[in-house]
Amino acid sequence: MSLVAGTKFGPYEIVAPIGAGGMGEVFRAADTRLGRVVALKVLPRQFAADADRLHRFEQEARAVAALNHPNILAVFDAGQQDGSSFLVSELLEGESLRAALDRGALPPRKTIEYGVQIAQGLAAAHAKGIVHRDLKPENIFITKDGRVKILDFGLAKLAQKASDSSMEPDGATVTSSNTAAGVVMGTASYMAPEQVRGEAVDARTDIFAFGAVMYETLSGNRAFRRDTVPETMTAVLKEDPPDLVDAGLSVSPALDRIVRRCLEKNPEQRFQSAKDLSFALASLSGADSSAASKVVTGAAPGTPSVFWKSAAIVMALLAAVAGLAWFISTRPASKVRMQFAIPVENVINHMALSRDGSWLAFVSPDEGTGRPVLYVQRIGAPSATQLPGTEGATYPFWSPDGASVAFFANGKLQRVPASGGPPQKLADVLAARGGSWGTRNVIIYAPDAGSSIWRVNPDGTGAARVTDVTAGGRQDQTHRWPVFLPDGNRFLYWDGNFGNDKDDRASGTYLSSLDGKERKLVVLCHSNAGVAFGRLFYANDEHQLISIPFDTSKGTVSGSPSLEASLVGFQPATYWADFAVAETNSMVYNAKSGSSLSELVWVDRTGKKVGTIGQPGVMCNPSISPDGNRVAADITDQKANNVDIWLFNTQDGGNTRFTFAPEEEVAGVWSRDGKLIAYRSNLAGGSGVLIKPANSLGEPKLLAEYRGTDDIIPNSWSLDNQKVLCTHFTPSGYILELVPITGGSATRFHPGADNAATGMISPDGKWVAYTSNASGNWEIYVTTFPGAEGKWQVSRGGGTQPRWRGDGKEIYYEGLTGMLTAVPIRTDSGFATGTPAPLFQIRGRFQISSTDVFTYDVAKDGQRFLVNRYVKPERVDPLTIVLHAAADREN
Q1: Is residue 254 a contact partner of residue 244, using CB atoms and an 8 Å limit?
Q2: Where on the phi/psi map is residue 291: left (φ > 0), alpha (ψ -120 to 50), or beta?
Q3: Given 3.40.47.10, 3.30.200.20, 3.40.50.300, 2.60.120.200, which CATH number is that of 1-91?
Q4: Average pLDDT of each block of 10 consecutive residues along the chain (891 residues)?
Q5: Residue pLDDT, tens place only, 223-257
Q6: CA dist list (Å): 96 to 100, 108, 146
């Protein structure tokens, strides 16, 4: 096919030809809709009649479109026109690896740099079940800025899982058609032995091809190329390429072993995953060949290889794990990026580095209770220490001397010795949003999601507000994530106005000081910040970790931002990115999402699992409909950075989306007749309570709205369905309000002068159970409704999340240790409670936002509980640590 400039394929207009290959011709094209330049690949018409070639073209479109990774070519669109199929992708500037190799072999350091990126791209594809099957230098592109892109997934095939008996022996393609047995697909010089024999392929087939590419990149010669294709295939099956070390090349034995492991004839003897391969290569990154050899030979005893499940890769990973301690002690000049395992079997949500970068504190669920607890681990050590008494921990941060760790748990800011010991309570908090411990021995913290920044001394004295979200007539929605600068006086914090489009442009990291007089914008962003070695770190809206030069004395940024990591875990509900930096030139981050998965589980009164609803997700606030047939729950869409309410069917687990606004919409509460749902929504510059028909056939109606720092969350409905009892969060505390659904002002429902929240009206409409911290701990109380006369304490030793049984004869609550407790209730002559009965450890999920109010609900008869239970991951991915992170950096 010969296309001229101006030819159109839908909204795409051909500009000029780029090149051609076996799968089609490629053109530079203009996307007239979005005003961008793209690459358009066209399958020639004479091949369109070839069903096999057309099928492979369609495979490429579907396979690549399913991937989203910086090292894989991004596909934007696909279609057909006038008998020709076309594929639209990003337009790359640079050259193929083949073009680079035509000029000769590459240096080992450059080969390692490219190899790590290729392995990471393959790992992303393999995680989706996609095997490339045709990896070669022609299908690897190097952009002008050194980014590797893997091209042409036209031969991609879904990897067959050995346990999936429903699949054909040869494995299903992305279109579910199967390659006929014995048919060889790929390029001979880079085929794995199983591919040559026409056998089933999997991720390890790509690893063999990767080894062949690496070998050629280092030596300048193909590993198996012979004069004819049959001879080349025979070499793949029976011969080994010459040793790289013996060929007089500047290739270290460690790198040679990695390449050799990739080229093993038996797939069981290769690296078992591209992720493991990337770890091994990353251990050599930033070091010359001699340094790489020292890492291997200098491995210390006690290397935590037990965390790697494939015995075949232990030697290759020795450099990545044991070498970590060597790098710390010897302080090489080059930056070193590597993975290191965390010796826990659960997800890691929050972490912090000590000031000298030698210790890591992190939060992970306890194996027994499922509640988040605090751990500390020396960087490079094979084990971590759980600190007793830290159940419920969130957002830890270190003291300047590294002797203590501060954290938030059970409504308190606390500190605990890093060596272990009883925690000390310092200040009250509700839904805390970070803290920092400065060199002047002052702690600053954000006690709530909508609060100002406060200060307190490490002994718990001197608590006082530092910043003011309402100062100067402003109505900032939140000040959070404070970070002290080295002087111990000035600090950074995130100022969020995320509910208002205009104000949102001012959301970012600001500078202030302990006297609270200064407020200066440093950089616009939507995440927490970190400061170390002359740079400011934050996550951008694509969840990439970014840094920019930062003058700590002036409090100003300069120069251009740099990409530190292509993906960092992010919690969209809290604007928290999971990374930590240390002043002594270290950085650690978690590439996975900062939010743990959970599932809706039915349990009986002993905690035994009796059923589930729906699929695992990032969920909170389950609420059972009055008839028991449906459940409302909040689900976080991490890619869209948004949270919406979904409705689940309790019979078949099917779900439908209930709210659709781009703002966060959460905490759905059913009316008594099940016809309406009240929920909380972010509004321009504030929040509000809306109601909407549960059948989704009507438009939402706004009942109450608050601006600035105030927030409001619906809790329960009155018996006549005319009012909604809500928790109103104010800068001075929490109150309960009744909001009429017919319009008009909200009226305060507040028993006494103490804070009151989470008000649940009884089934007969005569009582309200609520939480209050009047005693110093959050406890459950009951008062009359609608008069709020009298007060009876229900819980002992702490309690949150009150729920009523359908007949009003029991109240349930979660204690501070995570125990769900049932309390018998008698109301025949006043109000009285029976003996509390502990039921089971609720094992709920991490709190992900200030609107994450409930982790459970109860069936009407009180015999079953729907618990939003944390899901233990199948595997825990290691963290990425960067040592000497400022080395080789251009400021």
Answers
A1: no
A2: alpha
A3: 3.30.200.20
A4: 80 87 80 87 70 68 74 84 83 92 91 93 88 91 91 57 33 32 59 89 94 94 86 89 75 86 92 84 52 27 30 33 40 59 72 90 79 85 85 92 92 90 88 92 88 91 86 68 95 74 65 88 92 92 90 92 88 85 86 72 93 87 95 82 87 86 85 95 78 91 78 92 90 84 85 80 95 83 90 89 95 87 92 92 61 88 91 72 66 41
A5: 998 888 888 888 999 998 988 866 567 788 888 88
A6: 7, 18, 11
Q: Which of 31, 134, 170, 202 is catalytic?
A: 134
Which alpha helices (DSSP H) does 95-202 contain, by range?
A: 97-101, 108-127, 193-196
Residues 649, 692: Cα–Cα separation, whole Å: 18
Q: How far apart are CA 565 and CA 701, in angstroms?
A: 43
CA 702 – CA 680 distance, rounded (Å) = 10
In the chain, which residues fall in CATH 3.30.200.20? 1-91
- Domain 618-870 architecture: 6 Propeller (2.120)
Q: For residue 502, what pLDDT is reported?
A: 40
Q: What stretch(es) of the chain map to CATH 2.120.10.30?
A: 346-532, 618-870
Alpha helix positions (H), 179-313: 193-196, 203-219, 229-238, 253-262, 274-282, 289-297
Q: CA 306, CA 298: separation in Å to the nearest integer?
A: 19
Is 448 one of the catalytic residues?
A: no
Largest CA distance in the chain: 99
Q: What is the pLDDT of residue 23?
A: 62
**Residue 650 CB contacts under 8 Å (≥ 6 apart), including other chains:** 613, 624, 628, 629, 630, 631
Cα–Cα distance measured from residue 785 to residue 718, given in angstroms and rounded to the nearest whole number: 9
In sequence order, the 6+-apart residues with CB closer than 8 A to the CB of 161 are: 167
Q: What is the pLDDT of residue 406?
A: 97
Tokens of 228: 């004819």
**CATH code given to domain 346-532:** 2.120.10.30
Give just the sign of the alpha carbon dihedral 595, 596, 599, 600.
Answer: negative
Residue partners of 262: CB distance under 8 A and separation at least 6: 207, 208, 210, 211, 212, 214, 270, 271, 277
Amino acid 186: pLDDT: 54
Query: What class has domain 96-338?
Result: mainly alpha
- Across 433-542, where does the E strand assignment appear? 435-437, 443-445, 454-456, 464-465, 478-484, 490-496, 508-513, 520-524, 530-532, 535-539
φ, ψ of residue 574 to 5 degrees: the values are: -120, -10
Which residue do the tokens 């579907």 mark? Answer: 62
